[in-house]
Each structure stands twice: as structure tokens, then as C-alpha cells.
Design brief:
Blueprint (H helix, E strand, L loop, with lengths): L5 E4 L3 E5 L5 E6 L2 E4 L4 E4 L3 H18 L6 E4 L4 E5 L2 E2 L2 E8 L2 H7 L6 E11 L8 E2 L1 H6 L5 H23 L3 E8 L1 E5 L5 E5 L8 E5 L9 H4 L5 H11 L9 E2 L2 E2 L1 H16 L16
Antiparallel strand pairs: 1-2, 2-3, 3-7, 4-5, 6-7, 8-13, 9-10, 9-12, 10-11, 12-15, 13-14, 16-17
This protein binds 5-aminoimidazole ribonucleotide and aspartic acid.
């Protein structure tokens, strides 16, 4: 295979130059980090599962009309995505209090809030991604009011859809983090689309019956085997047969390939689709 140009390496993913203009390849690593990379481990199978789960959820969101960067799965660890200009804001939606919200405000974990909460964090590893307000975003020009409104309204739609989807398979969506990117049309018009990944690395999912945590908190707080939790989620989503495609780091490649083909069939219809002039996300 020809050597590809590495564009960026993050904590959990690597970006390579894409195969077509305006695209990049997103490679999912097995690295797990927490607390701004203070804790680090390599967990066999994590990347494969996140690639599968993220491809599936992004495809579902596209079907609802929420624009995402996902184009198609390439293999077990890679997906082709649109190249975007990342907006340096992490948008977190919370339905139930957990994590840093509890720590910051002294709230008991599991507290159901009167209404879901949206929080913004400045995407800056060196600073540990600090909490910011809308005012900071506008004052420093990280996004303009139009862009932020788009992001927040997409986040609510994502929350409604994913909460329902997970509740139907016995999982509670506690919170999640989204990242967005800008793309530009032929005439310079701006579109905001969902980027990064949607996986148990960036959401909290609790078993509705037992309350067991199935997401990255297993790794953060040593609650149990991480891959077992991720595999449980993938099984419930119907992405892998019971027993899983990942066992002790060994991967059933044939099976995984077949599953990718199905996903790609869905993605094919919108493969590198034109920036539709009727697109609602258009800024005139
Ligand atoms: N998140 C935030 N920064 C990185 C990640 N992955 C996600 C967490 C959690 C939500 O955002 O995985 O689902 C809220 O995180 P926290 O740590 O602020 O409570
Ligand atoms: N992934 C981030 C980190 O390394 C934050 C987290 O998920 O806890 O530190």
C-alpha cells in the first residue's frame, strides 16, 4: 500500500490524507486516555469497536437529516470522513448528573435534572479543556452566534434521537460530548456538520436495569473491563453477534468486513454527496 500522509495524531485517533479531495481518513487507535492523558493504556479491540459504533450512529443521524462528516467505513479501524475546519469547542449535553458536573458543583451522581443541560468547553489540551460560556465563545470569536445556534440545535436533536435509541436497547444516555466542523461550499457558503466520533469514549451509558456503567468510566475509574462494556453496547445495537468480534484482542476479520459492507451500502447513497443547495444548514 502506498504510504499515506499523516495529518494529525490525537489521543485516540490518527488522521491521514483522504483518498479523494476534501476527505480525510480517520484511524481509530486502541489507546485510551483519561484526565487529560494523565492515565493512559492500550486496550486491544477498543479502536475497532469505536469505529463500528461511531459509523453506525453517524449513519443513523444522517438518515434523520443531521449532517455529519462520516462518508463510509473503509476497514475495521478506518473511516473516510469529510475534511472540516474543527471548531475549538466541545459541546457536552447532560441528561443525568455525572462526571465533572458532580465534582464541580457537589451534585450527587445520578441526579436527574429538571431539563437537559448543555455545557461548552474550550478544546485545548494544554489547559485541560476548561469550561467556558457563550460569552467566551463570542468574545474570542471561536464561533459566531449563528454557528453556535446551529451546533446547539443539532445537539438537542442528537440527544433526543440517541436517548430514544439507547433507551430502546436498555441503556440510559447519561451525557455525551460533540464536536463540530465547518465546511465551505463552492460559493464560499458555510455549513456546520457533526465531526469527531460518537462512541462510548465520549458518552456515558448506564444499563437501565442494573445501573452498570458501560462506557469509558470503566477505564477512568477502574470499574471493569473496558472492551466488555463497549462490546455489550455494540451487541445491543445489533452491530456484532453475541460473543463479539473482539475476543482478547483477536478480531474476526471476515465477519467485521461483512458488517462494514452493510453499513457502506447505506452510506453509498450519500457518498460524497454534493453540497445540496437546499440544505438547511446554509448560510446565505
Ligand atoms: N468527554 C468530555 N471530554 C472528553 C470526553 N470524552 C465526554 C465524556 C462524558 C461527557 O463528555 O466522555 O460523556 C462529560 O464529561 P465530563 O468528564 O465533563 O463529565
Ligand atoms: N479523553 C480525554 C483525556 O485524555 C478526557 C477523558 O475522556 O476523560 O484525557
Amino acid at each position: 500500500m502506498a504510504r499515506r500522509k499523516k495529518l494529525y495524531e490525537g489521543k485516540a485517533k490518527i488522521l491521514y490524507e483522504g483518498t479523494e479531495p476534501g476527505t480525510v481518513i480517520q484511524y481509530f487507535k486502541d489507546d485510551a486516555t483519561a484526565f487529560n492523558a494523565e492515565k493512559h493504556d492500550v486496550i486491544a479491540g477498543k479502536g475497532v469497536l469505536n469505529n463500528r459504533i461511531s459509523a453506525h450512529l453517524m449513519t443513523k443521524l444522517e438518515q434523520l437529516g443531521i449532517p455529519t462528516h462520516f462518508i463510509r467505513s473503509i476497514n475495521m479501524r478506518e473511516q473516510l470522513v469529510r475534511s472540516v475546519e474543527i471548531i475549538p469547542i466541545e459541546l457536552v449535553v447532560r441528561n443525568i448528573a455525572a462526571g465533572t458536573l458532580c465534582k464541580r458543583l457537589g451534585i450527587k451522581e445520578g441526579t436527574v435534572m429538571q431539563r437537559p443541560l448543555v455545557e461548552f468547553f474550550y478544546k485545548k489540551d494544554e489547559l485541560g479543556d476548561p469550561l467556558i460560556s457563550e460569552e467566551h465563545i463570542f468574545a474570542f470569536g471561536w464561533a459566531d452566534p449563528y454557528e453556535l445556534e446551529e451546533m446547539v440545535s443539532m445537539a438537542w436533536r442528537v440527544n433526543d434521537f440517541l436517548s430514544g435509541l439507547f433507551s430502546g436497547i436498555g441503556l440510559q444516555l447519561v451525557d455525551f460530548k460533540l464536536e463540530f466542523g465547518r465546511i465551505y461550499g463552492e460559493n464560499g457558503e458555510l455549513y456546520i456538520i457533526l465531526a469527531d466520533e460518537l462512541s462510548p469514549d465520549n458518552c456515558r451509558l448506564w444499563d437501565s436495569k442494573t445501573g452498570e456503567k458501560m462506557d469509558k468510566d470503566r477505564f477512568r475509574f477502574d470499574l471493569g473491563d473496558l472492551v466488555e462494556g463497549y462490546q455489550f453496547i455494540a451487541e445491543r445495537l445489533g452491530l456484532i453477534p453475541e460473543g463479539g468480534i473482539v475476543k482478547g484482542g483477536n478480531i474476526n476479520e471476515k465477519l467485521a468486513e461483512k458488517l462494514d459492507l452493510i453499513e457502506n451500502e447505506l452510506a453509498e447513497k450519500r457518498k460524497l454527496r454534493d453540497l445540496n443547495p437546499g440544505n438547511k444548514n446554509r448560510k446565505s
